[in-house]
Specification:
Layout lengths: L1 H14 L7 E4 L1 H18 L3 E5 L7 E4 H18 L5 E9 L2 E8 L6 H6 L20 H11 L4 E6 L3 E10 L4
Parallel strand pairs: 2-4
Antiparallel strand pairs: 1-3, 3-7, 4-5, 5-7, 6-7
Helix pairs in contact: 1-5, 2-3, 3-5
């Protein structure tokens, strides 16, 4: 119930324009370390193959640290939640012109076309997992709003029985 209430409050603040984003040059590796440490028990319990693919010369990104952490936690947390034991999760980051492209790929069950149409809507949860996997249906809606507030975009590609990959973009850090 707390998670649902917190999610609703966050969406209300975002839609009302009451979320202040403190933009700063952010080292995404440090942010990932925080997210991964919070998910470590679940990752280890499922014995997941986990890869983080970031080039050594990867630039800082221009984001709100709190918002980036929340987006990554939602996307990686969902991947961990839906992947079966001994499954795979791969996080990739690449530079594309002035933007950074982040992807979270999993070897989970994938999604059908109907689910893909609604995946970023509030409260939407595919029928297949509604009763077996806990969730509020707010994490992806919040992630979409936050990514768009920071000038990026978010999307997903998925295939039933193969897995899903969530993508989002954010700006590289540039000195003025």
């Amino acid at each position: 119930m707390n998670t649902l209430i917190e999610g609703l409050l966050e969406i209300t603040r975002i839609e009302a324009g009451k979320v202040d984003i403190l933009y700063e040059a952010t080292d995404v590796r440090q942010t990932l370390d925080v997210v991964m440490s919070n998910l470590a028990d679940k990752i280890n319990a499922k014995e997941l193959e986990f890869q983080i693919l970031i080039p050594p010369d990867f630039p800082s990104i221009h984001v709100g640290l709190k918002q980036l952490t929340q987006i990554l936690f939602n996307l990686i947390g969902n991947a961990v939640k839906y992947v079966d034991a001994k499954g795979r999760v791969i996080i990739r980051m690449v530079v594309e012109e002035a933007m950074v492209l982040v992807s979270v790929e999993d070897s989970g069950p994938g999604m059908d076309e109907e689910t893909l149409k609604h995946i970023f809507e509030m409260y939407w949860r595919g029928d297949k997992f509604r009763k077996t996997i806990a969730g509020t249906g707010l994490g992806l809606a919040v992630s979409k709003l936050l990514v768009e507030m920071m000038g990026g975009r978010i999307w997903v590609k998925s295939e039933l029985g193969v897995g899903s990959t969530f993508y989002f973009t954010v700006q590289q850090w540039r000195e003025k």
